[in-house]
Amino acid sequence: MAGYQNYYGGQNYGLPIPYTTTISPALSHGTQIHVSGTPTGNRFEVNLKNYQEDTVLHFNPRFEDNALVLNSAQRGSWGQEERHGLPMQRGVRFTLVIMVTHHGFSIAVNNSHLCEFHQRLPMHSAQLLEIKGDVNLESAQVYSGGMGGSMGMPGMGGPMGMPPMGMGMPFSQPRSTPFGGGDAVNFPSSYNYPSAPPVDVLPSYPMGGGSGVPSIQSCQIHVGSRIFVRGHIHPNANRFELNFLQGYNDGDDVAFHFNPRFDTRTIVKNHRQRGAWGSEENQPFPSHMPLMPGAMIDLQVTCQADRYTVYMNNHLIAEYRHKIPAGFVRAIQYKGDITVTSVGQL
């Protein structure tokens, strides 16, 4: 197997190239394939294929030709190429979402709908997602469609259940949301969205009173992981915090400390290593989506190759570059003036 392709601070990140994973259950209307990474050379491929040399979809950016080539193959024989303008740049991170429709595939790159590829071979014949070529691959995930919300998202420490409303996730966000460079995609309103995956529903935690009562949930966070936290901020809140711990205790190292402070309307980001906090990174509350005492919130924290990103109610509100290499987080902790009602990991 090839070595890991992405590097930060001397550590390996991301997925090996070539990368192959099984598609199960079979492709159906609403299935989504999410891929993120950085092109590094002349071309790379994302293929939906089977073991019989059939390729249902061939997605092939060619930087030397400044073109995106789409195609299919049956028993190793390629069909007619479909060419489009190249929607990405060498050395610049991209996000790709391929959604299965009734008639083929709808493709979006960097949160913008790009093109359609009409079905040539039966969808259900695709057995593998294959990615190869000149790319540093961060993540590659297949989200099943047509299942009414049974997409098999792993929970965190207990039986899984479905909350009463969709989490703020890429496949359940409002279609008109100006996401602006995130990991989600705004498909036209004619598409049917698969339901949000189930999350681990936890009891409400009493976390008020300044210092609060901390809650720690076991999890394994690596590049490509997404953590979803739903809850409500207390009406008289001063601050709350979310910590990614490298152990299971309150005093363990913190890879990422996310700390909105309502008294100063500032988001504080930091890390803690060997008991010592690093330099705080402070930013004002975002004007487009203010954090407010008494508000209900859906938080999505994504671990990327070089940073954590935080979305609240589908708006990007914070980023924090890794000071501690990703892949060593063992638990998530939340405390302060917030009541958490559900947590999930994807």
Task: Describe what you observe in this structure.
It is a single chain. The chain is mainly β. Helix content is 0%, strand content 50%. It starts with a strand and ends with a strand. It folds into 2 domains: 4-143, Jelly Rolls (Sandwich), CATH 2.60.120; 200-345, Jelly Rolls (Sandwich), CATH 2.60.120.200. It is built from no helices and 25 strands.
Short structural description:
With 346 residues, the chain is mostly beta strands. The protein is 0% helix and 50% strand. It folds into 2 domains: 4-143, Jelly Rolls (Sandwich), CATH 2.60.120; 200-345, Jelly Rolls (Sandwich).
> Residue-averaged pLDDT, rounded?
76
Query: What sequence of helices (H) and strands (E) makes up the elements?
Result: EEEEEEEEEEEEEEEEEEEEEEEEE
Beta-strand portion reads over 45%
In the CATH hierarchy, the third-tier topology of the largest domain is known as: Jelly Rolls
Descriptive tags:
346 residues, mainly beta, Jelly Rolls, 0% helix, elongated, disordered N terminus
